[in-house]
Amino acid sequence: MRMxxxxxxxxxxxxxxxxxxxxxxxxxxxxxxxRRSTGILSTLIxxxxxxxxxxxxxxxLSSMTDAFHSVPGLLVIVPAAIGLRGNVFGALGSRLSxxxxxxxxxxxxxxxxxxxxxxxxxxxxxxLGSVAVAIIGVAAAVVLGLGESLDPxxxxxxxxxxGVVASSVVIVITVVLAERSVRYGWDLDNxxxxxxxxxxxxxxxxxLWLAAALTGHRVxxxxxxxxxxxxxxxxxWSLVRTRRVRVLSIxxxxxxxxTFAALVSTxxxxxxxxxxxxxxxxxxxxxxxxxxxxxxxxLGTVLAARVATSIHLGLVDVRPWPPVRVWRDVGRLGALxxxxxxxxxxxxxxxxxxxxxxxxxxxxxxxxxxxxxxxLFGFVVAIAWLSSIASARMNLDPDNYGTPVVxxxxxxxxxxxxxxxxxxxGVV
Length: 428
Fold this sequence. Notes:
- It is a single chain.
- This protein has helices spanning 2-63, 65-70, 74-102, 114-143, 152-184, 188-214, 218-241, 245-274, 276-280, 283-312, 324-356, 364-393, 398-424.
- It has 13 helices and no strands.
- The N and C termini lie far apart (90 Å).
- It is globular, with a radius of gyration of 24 Å.
- The protein is mainly alpha-helical.
């Protein structure tokens, strides 16, 4: 009898133990599902926001055709100027995210702090990068045959003044995102790229338009030119005088890749300048351009930032073929891409119809957004991975290279892919 009771008690304990393990497993599965869902939503929401606001940039772009005709060469620098904002501040967000993950981040602007040095470096790179954008844009405009009507000084002033105005807003947004990420436990890798791309698109175009308008009047042109001289002189003087190792390292590593990025992005401007007349006749496609390029770049910067953080934390080996961890990220981003590209197409057609009338809403634009987007997504994945591991192999910081290489490549390849797919579908 005692043996029977003992056996019954052991059996009941065993059953309770199994049930407890099952409940623990179920709770663990639920927590894991909630974490995955939260991660997906924290990426999707900024991407959709980026797409929506980029359509506003697209409408602005389509309404600036008169400015492009009155300022020869302006359209050539537009992709590079927009890309510079995403490159500088996407890389800034990636660096700050890495410092948050490694525990080095503190919300202080003092000299020598991670945040303070990064902000100084980002400001210097913005000004010097704007000069590079202007020089490359002028050279490209001359190649296009715009030399006789080109005003190089005006292009330089528009690039620097417009860049400083836009960057002063985006830099505040990036710092706020970093502070909120620390406070609420957000993963800055998931949100910095899309959000910076969003505001970079929306703010840069009006800033360039404002700078172009300022240079159209004699007095304001002189003021803008003086402001340009002051900004560039300060940047050069600060770079020569500073002894802050982190600032020098960031500028030294960033400027070459940003100059290359500006060169590649300018090729996108050349494509748009050459097809300006055709694009003006297809307003929905012109509205699509910023969101198409920006969404693809945002997806790539999310992947590049995650890879860079994983490399810093030792979670990913530096090798040619991505590990399973990276492929899981690619799969999730690929699923999000379908939603984002479809939304881009539908929203661009709807916005064009609302602004220009029902005749502007070509349904082929939706197909161009989806099919062209997925062609571009495959390219983005390859570039994000290869640029990150290549910089790590050369003992360089992948945070400084992944984002600029991705976004600049997307500017050029994206413009070419969109025009090609739109041509095949009969949109242009």
